[in-house]
């Protein structure tokens, strides 16, 4: 378990957040699953709390207005030194800016955007709030992966916007690229072809560390969620893909080095 570095290199995943219909019930689900506690956060877009482990911020959860019937999904935020410049670059590279850029009180400046394939993500220009403040402990985000139909085209977009150095897996039947910054892996792209869920399309997936994948998957069901892909051995450890009671999909993993 380590405290995260103060300021992220632009392009590095730095925060994850979830906007739901029932904030209280969602807090109870993740408190039981991950041991999260909560503190108030900026509320420009409605009620919002930050999830804490040992007093350190690890994720955010907000509430949709009652008249907004939007899909519920975890959003990965990528760091930037200038949200306005990055938003313009995203537009010029074929992406879309859906919300912002706007200030989140004294915390920082942000925008919600999508890549040319339609996968939604956030950009975060840190001020008082740097982002996820703890790494490696159960309940913390451990990895972020774009699940898409194919990686070659979208990799060019992320490379142009953030300067990623893609490293592809050379395989005839496995479409996967790791994104590096300054020689360090920070995220990945996974092309799944026709296996891409039609109800979600291309999307960023958040991986959360757990102490025991099988126990955590069973706990998800006990708490009213669903197991979409049961526990299995993966390259990063034992993983399972699950959904919370409102349908937000995420992956739980017990890392191989734990």
Major β-sheet strand ordering? 3-4-5-2-6-9-8-7
Number of strand segments: 18
Distance between the termini: 11 Å
What value does the average pLDDT take? 93
User: Helix count, per DSSP?
Assistant: 4
Largest sheet: 8 strands, mixed
Q: How are helices and strands ordered from N to C?
A: EEHEEEEHEEEEEHEEEEHEEE
| Radius of gyration from the alpha-carbon trace, in angstroms | 17 Å
Helix percentage: 10-25%
**Backbone shape:** globular
Strand content: 35-45%
Low-confidence stretches: none
Structural class determined from secondary elements:
alpha+beta
Q: Mind explaining what this structure looks like?
A:
The structure is a single chain. This protein is globular. By secondary structure, the protein is an alpha+beta fold. It contains four helices and 18 strands. An eight-stranded mixed sheet has the order 3-4-5-2-6-9-8-7, covered by helices on one side.
Task: List descriptors.
258 residues, alpha+beta, 18 strands
Give a brief outline of the structure.
The protein has about 260 residues and is an alpha+beta fold.
Would you spell out the secondary-structure blueprint of this structure?
Elements: E1 2-3, E2 13-20, H1 23-34, E3 37-40, E4 48-53, E5 56-63, E6 74-79, H2 83-92, E7 96-104, E8 108-114, E9 120-126, E10 134-135, E11 141-148, H3 152-162, E12 165-168, E13 175-181, E14 184-191, E15 203-209, H4 213-222, E16 226-234, E17 237-243, E18 249-255
Parallel strand pairs: 2-5, 6-9, 11-14, 15-18
Antiparallel strand pairs: 1-10, 2-6, 3-4, 4-5, 7-8, 8-9, 11-15, 12-13, 13-14, 16-17, 17-18
